[in-house]
Amino acid sequence: MAWEAASGAWLHLGQDDAPPRCLAFCGEVPALWLVLLGGAREVPAVTPATAGYQVPVIGLRVSLEQALANWQRLGEWLQAHPQFYRVPALGLCLAAVEAWLRTAAEDQGLAWLQGDLDAVSGPFDRNAPSRSGFWRWNADDRLQALADGSADLHRLTGVMDFEELGEWHRGFGFGTLRHPWFEALEQLDGFAALEHPFPALPPHEPVEHDPWWEHSYRAHAQGDRWGLVNQADGTWHEAPRWDAIQPDSHSFIRVWVRQGALWGVLQIEPVVELLLAPQFDAVVDSACDDHMVASQGGLLGLMHIPSGQWRLPPRFHELRRETGELLRAREGAHYGFLDLDGQWRVPPRYQDTRPFGGTLAFDAPGLAWVMAEGRWGLLDEQGQERLACRYDQVEWRQEHDHRGWRVGRDGRQGWVGIDGREAVPCEWDEVDCYEPYQHPLQAEGIYRVTRNGLHGLSPALGDWRVAPRYMEIEPLGLGQGAAPLPADPWRSAPEPDGSLAAWIAEVGGEPGAPRLLIRVRDQQGCAVIDERERQWVPPSPGLVETLGNGNQRWLKRTDEQDRQQLWSLVRGEPALPGWHAGVEVLELPDQPLLLTFERLDGPEGFSLGLRLWRETGEPALEGCFSALAGQSFWLPRLDEDTREQLLEAWSRGQDVPAEAWEAGQAQPCFVRPGQPRQSAQAAWQARYQAGDLQAALALSRLAASPTEAYAWARRACALDGGTGTPSAGAWLQLTRLALQGAGGDDALPAARDWVARARASEPELDEGFEASALEARLWLEPAAGPVDGARALAAADYLVAVTGTTQALHHEGRYLLGRCHREGQGTAVGLDAAREHWRIAAADGHGAATRALVELLAEQASAEDDQAAAERLWLEARQHAWNYLEHPGDAGDAAVITALHGFCGELELLSEPLDWAAAEYHLLQAAEGGHLPAMGLLAVEVYRRRGSPLRDGRQARAWALRHAEASGALPAEAPAAWRWLLGWLLWLRG
């Protein structure tokens, strides 16, 4: 079928009166180039048939002028992005493509670009002649996102790490720094002189293999003599007295030494000992016990090392150690196998042989493939042919070898198992096994057989077969008719160890139930059958998947809208009505719990909620939960840690913490199936009264005010009653609240000691990172004691080094490093370094870093004499402020948001042309947050200033009064008459 061939992507440059030229193919046509094809029209494909790839039907064509306009729009958007400065070379990439498009448009006249993408429809949309409609929508959608400002960086460009230039090269389709488009253009008339800013890469220098890299010693020359040097300390291990030394690639304790033209064997560990003096033409193998293969007089023999006598005199042209007891030898044109006494265990009659398998993962122990009369068979170590030489083809793919080999005979395929028996006769168009890294089930002993393009199953053992009648087929797992899997807490796969075919051949499950569940797809859709081809899930569009890792009782169905449904195999119908965002099953000892997920829309955006049901369809817990046992649901599944915690707690009849979703808000509580919800406050209070210090920590996090949170944090640290060992998290919570001012002036001097106690309490990895962040802040805080910039710098530097760039603590470390450089703490004052750290943190939504960066840029802009340079600094500051206000990190810092609104409002008043609406909006947001300068600017500049379209005396007086109250000039309890009079005076004075 056409869609079974590889999908390709071609990009062509052409003119109506000239044949097109292919500029890029497959990997050189990344998603980023789809921006060029925005607004394209569908035309017949121009790509000729390519062997192994789908033949295109329809292409997307756009003029070079339109492509250039699209690219310029992309460039403008990228250059305005706050992270653009991180990749200085990115501008070169954009400019290079723009220059090429412009030059091509000018020199080639009416030229066009055409993309022939994903040529034919796939197996799920075969009613459409081509997928070009999908790609046209994709290109137009990207262009529209650029136009309306809703573009997402990663989705648009396919670049995951903005700072990694290599990703941009891949995103632009640069296989190397020399762009393939430019190379193609050099062959076109008028483009020979086109230059681009990417230098040619230096030629690749091959790296010479170092035979000593795994050894403790290395050959070293002194003059014209060689010895061995200890690689650890450089001392001589074997004095330089040989003409040459070579390692035995299979041994770390023996090397070969040469004197003149003859070779010998030297043992180097545990002590240096000359085992055999140089006497051989060559040493072939000295790594195996007391024997070695060596050459003398041009012939090979087997030498007994301890006695120095030939076990097998040199008389063979080829000799190789096969096993501990067998050697492969050649006589004439044929190979045979000798024992150590020189007796032929297998006379030389084979044209070729493969090595005997050992104990490695991909080996067949004790078996070797041999060829006679052009056909292959299997031989065991006793010299018996396990399979006669009858196969004209054997596939040596290692990923199959642990299950055997695909074999062929007379144009048909079969399978030989690892036990040396023919598992599938050679009567099929194709036979394949199920590798664990390609399929959800490691179905050992079960093979997919194909005839006329349709698939079936054939087991190595058992009385069942599935006829080849399906477009797709794949084993899913054990059914209730198979013997139950043994209890194994480490089991992570839904199949037994060893042969699945042998397991399901045993009778031990429920009579009449399926032993093996098999997913199939035909013209009607995806269905599930068993080994007897009985249908257990009817066909439908979408997909059917397993749940759990034991004998299956439920399956998960997914429809074309990515909704999910839980299917009961016992009842043969949906276990729960309707379709959901996700489904799961939690197997408790007494009964299973069925889980469904649904979408929740809250103040912080989209998340998922969880409902729990009994097998009868009744709720196991009333209500919907946005979190359970510490897991918030962003994906429709339980984490393994959460699953284990729920199983352990509920099996013992214990409640677990949760967050119930009510009226768009999360309400903390404790839950257990079959029991009413318990208030989180009451539950934690009871646990604290029982002596649980961690309960006090939980109450601190739930507290309504910082003062209450601080009091509970002290109890969690056993500072105000209670006994026990406080956790690292409790000390960190107490320190965090002290830095927020919750403990008053007396708290901060003790905070440094609290962090030290947290470090002594064996913190978790993330708690150790947070301790470093708190240390850095405390060493910069005068109220906590003497400032120590060097220790603050070291703590922040460590934090940045050990955390990933996507972690919030990494950006906290960047912010603190910026403070050290800005204030000259532990290092010289470096505004450039501070700005760089704050830029990185601000780009990922760190509020304090954004505010510090904006203030620094504003300060530098005010001091800048060059008007153009100052304008760039003001614009960058405004861009960072806008970016944070649009996407504040961690739900936003209210103080930072207020300050940035005040900055943006004041900057709008200084800009030309003046945007009064924007200035009023930002200043109102800041003033409502208590920003004193914003109140004054509203009273004087926005609502009183002549020429302001928003001039309003009442508003001016109101904000003048609020400014006076906030600044302390007017007491809040002043009489109304005085307030009215002062308001007029303030308004008149401005």
Kindly describe this structure.
It comes from Metapseudomonas otitidis. InterPro entries: Sel1-like, TPR-like_helical_dom_sf, WG_beta_rep. This protein is 32% helix and 27% strand. The protein has 990 residues and is α+β, with helices and mostly antiparallel strands. Strand 27 and strand 28 form a beta hairpin. The chain starts with 8 loop residues before the first strand and ends with a helix.
Cross-sheet strand order for the largest sheet = 2-1-5-4-3
Q: First CA to last CA: what distance? A: 81 Å
Query: Strand pairing plus helix content: what structural class?
Result: alpha+beta
Separate helix tally: 25
What is the 3D form?
Answer: globular
Q: What are the segments in which pLDDT stays under 50 over at least 5 consecutive residues?
A: 120-128, 175-204, 974-981
How many E-type strands? 48
Pfam families: WG_beta_rep
Protein name: WG containing repeat-containing protein
Organism: Metapseudomonas otitidis
